[in-house]
Amino acid sequence: MGKIKVLDEQLANQIAAGEVVERPASVVKELIENAVDAGSTTIDISIEEGGLTLIKVIDNGYGIEASDIVTAFQRHATSKISTSSDLFRIASLGFRGEALPSIAAVSRLQCMSSDTATGLARRIVIEGGKVTIDEPANAPQGTEMTVRDLFYNTPARLKYMKAIQTELGHISDYVNRIALAHPGIAITFKHNGNVLLRTLGSGDRLQVIAAVYGSNTAKVMLPVEAETSDYELRGFISKPELTRANRNGITAIVNGRYIRSHTINQALLQAYHTLLPINRYPLVILELGMHPSLLDVNVHPSKMEVRFSKEPELRIMIEDAIKAVLRGQRHIPGPESIT
Ligand code: ADP
Ligand code: MG
C-alpha cells in the first residue's frame, strides 16, 4: 500500500481554517457576509474580549432549513453557486462554502436557525468540528451564530493573537465598512456590552457616515455619481481640506462587497492630485455596481481582492467623476478658467 492518503474531513477543515480564519475579525466578516446574503434587514453583532471569547451574530434573514443545518457545516457546502459558470457571475458575498466548517473546526460554535419556508427552527452545537448537539429548537426567523473560545484547539494560532484592543480594532473596522456598504441594513455592534455602532437601516448612507465618522464629517461630504454602459458609481468624497494621515478612510464597495483595490485608490487619488497636501489622504466612500460577469472575486480566500475586466474604463470613470465634483467646488480650475 502507498503512503499517500486523503485527510479526514475534520483535519482538512482545520487546515482550511488556517487560511480562512486568520483572527476574530475573519469570523465576524464571514458571519456578517452570510447574514447579508440571507437578505437580512437587521444584523446584531456582539463580541467579548476582542472576539476571542465570544462572537455572536444574529440576523433576521431567510434562515437555514432544519434539514440543511448540518450540511451547511460541511466543506464546500453552499447554496450560492452550483455550476462552474456560476463562478463567473457571483452575485452573493459568499460562494466558497468554506467559512462555516472552518470556523467550527477551531471554536465551540452554536448555530440556531429558523427558515422562512418551513418556520421550523433547529439548533446544533459543534465543538472543534464535531457535532455534539443537533435538535429542534424555538427561535425567531433568521439565524443566530455563537462562536466561543476561538482557536481553543489550535494553541499556536491563539498565541499569535494580539491584544484585545488590536483584535477589536480589526473587527470594528470591518463592521464599519459593511455598514457603509449596506445603509439599508440596521446594524448594531457591541463590545463587552457597550454599543460601538448603531445604524438605522434607512438606506441613507450619510446617516451611516455620521455614525462611523461623526456628524461634523458627514456634513461636509460631497456626493458623487457617474455611469457608463458597464459601471455605476455612487458615493461620497471629502472636500480637500478634510484629510487624513493614511488611506484607511477610503472604502471601496463593489457589488455590495467591501474590497481593497489598488486600481480604485489610484484613480481617486489621481483625481485629488495636487489638491491634497503631501502624505494626506481623503475620506471616500465609493460604491460601484456592475454586471457580476465583469468581476472576478475568486482571487483570494478572504474575497477582499477582485479583478475588473475593463479596468481602464473603470479608472477613467472614477477619476473623471471625482474631478467633476471637486471642480464644482472650484478647487480644480475648470476648462473655462484656463487661458
Ligand atoms: P458560503 O457563504 O460560501 O456559501 P458558508 O460556509 O459561509 O459558505 O455557509 C454555508 C451555507 O450556509 C450558505 O451557503 C447558506 O446557505 C447557509 N448559511 C450560512 N449562514 C447563513 C445565514 N446567516 N442565513 C441563512 N443561511 C446561512
Ligand atoms: Mg459565507
From TrEMBL:
Function: This protein is involved in the repair of mismatches in DNA. It is required for dam-dependent methyl-directed DNA mismatch repair. May act as a 'molecular matchmaker', a protein that promotes the formation of a stable complex between two or more DNA-binding proteins in an ATP-dependent manner without itself being part of a final effector complex.
Domain spans labelled DNA mismatch repair protein S5: 209-327
Portion held of the full protein: 1 to 339 of 690
Stated name of the protein: DNA mismatch repair protein MutL
Residue stretches in coiled coil: none
Family that this chain belongs to: Belongs to the DNA mismatch repair MutL/HexB family.
